[in-house]
Amino acid sequence: MKLRIHDPAHIALHRGIRATIGVPLAMALGILLLPGTPAALIAAFGVLVTVAIADFGGMRSEQVRSLGGMALAGAIVLTIGVLAGGRPWSAVLATFIVTVLLTYVVLLHGAVASGAPPVLIMYVVSVSLGVPLSELGPILGGWLIAMALALPLTLFVVPRRTTAPVRKAVESALAALADVARSRATGAPLDLDALRTAEADLQASYFGNPFRASGLSQRNHALQLLASQLQGFIAAITRGTYFSADRVDSPTTALLAEESAGALAASADALGEAAAPAPSGLAIAATWQGQWDEAVTVLSSDPDGVAKVDGMFPDRAFALATVRLTMLVRRVLGIGGEDFAPVLGAHTIPEPPMPSIRRELISQAHLRSPWARLALRAGVGVALAVLVVEMVGLAHGFWVMLGVVSVLRLDPSTTFKMGALAIGGTLLGAVVAVLVIFVDDRNESLLWILFVGAVFLATWAPGALGFTLGQAAFSLFVIIAFSLIAWPPDLATVEQRVLDICVGVVVGVLVAALMWPRGVMRGLMSNVADAIDSARAALVAGVTHLVTGTAPSSMHLGEAGADLARARDVVEMGVGSTNPQVVASAREWQALLGHLRTLVVAGHLLGSWAYERPPIDREAPQLSPPLQGECTVADDAWAGVARAVRGQAGKRDGTSPVSSDVLGVARTVDLSAPEVADRALAAIWGHGWLRMTRDAAQACVVPGSSSH
Length: 708
Description:
By secondary structure, this protein is mainly α. It contains 27 helices and no strands. The two termini are 38 Å apart. The mean pLDDT is 85.
């Protein structure tokens, strides 16, 4: 085994330092203040999981709130564990419910995602003790000691503002986009290389960063969504020559480019400087609406109006994306939204989804949801471990349950691999523990000194040296800890540690093999494909509404949003990973979801253009067939992506670009009447959105698929 330290930003080192200070002190206080009780064990594990797993990021005020919430949740589950422990069926039932809930709420990300796993570990420890209710007081006392130490350790020992890299990268990406808009306004060449560099920096700050956002607030959710949508917008600009075409000579179009540049620069400034004025999208929205009116006039009076109006579209699409980014920046800053209705009239600008705890929890309560699958599988695995412990009577049964939690992965093969590594690491740690403890089993002071080093290794090694050595270090830590708590040392502790981990691995592999054996990641593929199909249905319904006046159901967009949310959450499982292969796959899925947003926005916009307006069939029926034909081409392209996502055989459809039949037919229509020109404009700019939608499908690379 090649020893290689990998600790980006020294995250593991910082955790090790905090744990090395806090865990020995917590255990010593537990032994001193509440001797002969489980307080020392609870205190030591409480500090360990808080600084090594939770490690809350964000501002100090956010960290204090997060720790307070975790303290309350921990006290509740410790109480449940004591009440349920000691009676097999109550322990099994309570463990299933608590594990499912704590695993499921991780989908809320931020502080909940950081705090739920440590709280679950504390529950596992308490339910496995099987102590009488009279021990609840000392157990809560140990938890109080842990939280009292965790607070200053988190706030003052090598603290870090962990969302700063993401926020800084977002600021730079917005500034690069502002330069592109400024170049459009002045007619200068676009510096796409600078834009690609900004995108790479944004990805580097986001992917592999476990602290990219913290807390439950809308501001933290908005930062995640802003980073994701920025990547999608930059991809749309750089994936072709559409936005590099010369800008048409149009007053409102030139003004749109200038206002977009100003709004993007203001957004970047507002994120970087607290005193900077808040960005606004109202001026862009007003000009965006004015551009529609100008385009109608151009179509009805200029012989070359169709070409000019088509040339206005790139800046119009750019401005739309700018307004949506501005909305998100205002959310990140905690500023209220703006009322666009007075300036947009009958038109709408699709607003980015608003985070909602209730909506998130409800939308994922489905067996297609990877979070629901993970929660149910974890609940069954840990509950089964409790049942085995109760039936066999294993000592230190929580090691069995922790073994299940540590090895259970998205698919059986990876679970089996992690199980083998866990057993190997445990055996290594057990051998070292025997050598350390039993060379001189009478020197308690020396063992305390060695315990301090073991604490550091147990918290530093998993992040810096990998899973196997992390398991070895953790095994060394717990064996020394139990030797100190129940002095003098006993060789049986080592044997129990190895046996318990082996039982936990067997349970984990069994559950992974029986529950969704094809892997939870199948949920990602299913949800992405379902989101594509729902968005396709919304696009077809929107074009049908525009052409015939048949109002679409809002169900399609709602279903697409729910499926997209479920798919995005599986990607989030990999975004914060330190595994390069997982991160690479997450990048590809994230890019695909970014392209998919073009399809969702196009369906929303095209459907909205028909409200309070006559259908195209009535005013310019010649334009209906080519527009519907282009819709079919775009729809078929995305259908091919959905097939590739599902792993179905067949080529991706539509390798040729969307035709320009709409533009050719529009040139043959008498556009002198404003009503006809208005509907022709909807068809021409609908052609633009369908072309962008088609380009987005062509740009999709499906992870694990050879079909492009």
